[in-house]
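Can't attach files on this board, so I'm pasting raw text. These are the components:
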Amino acid sequence: MDAINLLFEGFALAIQPANLIFAAIGVLIGTAVGVLPGIGPALTVALLLPVTFKLDPGGSIIMFAGIYYGGMYGGSTTAILLNTPGESAAVVTALEGNKMARSGRGGPALATAAIGSFVAALVATVALAFLAPALVKVAVKFAPWDYFGLMLIAFVTVSATFGSSPLRGLTSLAFGLWLGLMGLDQLTGQARLTFGVPQLLDGVEVTTLAVGLFAIGEALHVASRHLYKPEKPIPVKGSIWMSKEDWARSWKAWLRGTAVGFPVGALPAGGAEIPTFLSYTMEKKLSRKPEEFGSGAIEGVAGPEAANNASAAGTLVPLLTLGLPTSATAAVMLAGFQQYNIQPGPLLFTQHADLVWGLVASLFIANAMLLVLNLPLVGLWVKLLRIPLPWLYGGILVFASMGTIAANPSVVELLLLSAFGVVGFLMRRYDYPVAPAVVGLILGPLADNALRRSLQMSLGDPMIFLQHPSSAIMIAIATIALIAPFAFKGLSRFQHDED
Amino acid sequence: MTERSLKLANRPAVVAAMVLFTVAAVTYWDASQMTARATYGMGANAASYFICLFLAVLGVGHLFTAFQTSAVDAEDADWKAIGWIALALSGLIGSIWLGAGFILGSALLFAFTARAFGRKSLGVDLVIGVAMGLIIFLLFNKLLSLALPQGPFERLF
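---
Top answer:
Structure tokens for the assembled complex are below.
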């Protein structure tokens, strides 16, 4: 098996003491930042990118893996102990987890979340290691038109298909695509939407957009709604270990959650919310004690948390093999890779095989470290939750703007950051999803390039997209995914009228 | 009378439509100014025109929803708190603009943001902000050799 050999080489790289330290630091700061209320994994990765700027690519990517998994884990701790999920995918964890914590079972809730995350990430990372090379074999044959078709699917599924309102999702996507126009065009060198400002020639940084929308937008939103009532984290009393019954009720939920989460993440379908909700309803149906749901059922934490992590690991499949981010976190990760001049995609596996497999091996190591370090350190994370909100948000804003000026020391960049913060606030206030904007910014220019390179190869004939069955099918899927929510809406309204 | 109340209830959608139309117009104007030409296929302005169209379609979509009753009810916002955060960000931007350095800027940012979240002791928060800015500056400029903006205070180190 080729993959196994390469994976062993990856482990040989990841297990070097310096890299182990990078992974440990990544896991610790990833969890520490992820635990803070209101900070989801996407923002955790975006905020901590500057920390890894000056390391060598290998070390920084390994640290990155730790930050990513740590951020995911930290989010579930906040959801359980504080009932303020940092991201939409943790909403379901908060549902049962917070109830468990309130009834004095915070320890087992954290434990099942941690072990479930570990199991899910382990299975999903194994699946990633075996699926990725197979997918790369297909992906090297992809022509620009196939990429264009794929990106259309990603655009539609991220913004329209699964959101509460396709119109608002598409508007958010359009905002991202519009920002993606800014700067010098890669093919012709034409400046677009720069309005004569030289700092805009390089385009808009994905991290600036993500930090502005997530961190500053969130701070404005929370401040405006007076959401800073003193909410105290629920103390973790008694044993943090799970009883025999907890284990018996959890392990199947972990595996089912993983089975639901990974495929959804691996498909360019975007979002970990769907698998978490799916897993929750599934566990509720299958549970032997369905009456406990709503008042703290352990399956309701174990399943969705596993689904969330499996889906997050699943998004790495399209990210690494195709360079296609399907969630805000993946988009920020892609921006991080690009900072080290690494372009994920099929070529990455041939050109930087050591790096890819080092990353995959680090994911295993980071995952194991999380399990070993985090349960004993739970007291420390709870202390972090006690930081008064005024100082917390002050600190977040200082750190956010620090990252922005460290990457690009200019006033224009700070003005952009503030402007994105205002937009992020308005989007939150009027219920527009934020993730499609980030995905649109990073995928927009790529889609533009794929489209134009296809048309150059066909000497300007747009039929090229329909003449190749692969791209024709993908464009058809994207069209169906775009129309479906509108059609179903019409359908359900029709049924409503019937009643 | 009913129509008027409907419109008022959905004012955000109308505003969003107006913003979308404006951005579409700006994009159209920008694309019409471009000079680079492609030999085959589409030039650099094609994507601009496409996004302009996309924005315009979304604008029309927003106008349609504006006449339906299902608007999102936004709660009242505390504009004072927003104002403090705006002041906090202006503090940082002004400080960098005038060359006063990162530490002063981040101290202002920290203290005013804390004020927006209901802290009353601005002086204490300023001191904390200076300490925090100093630690971040030392950590990143010296240890990780990132170039944070320097003012007179930062040059002492």
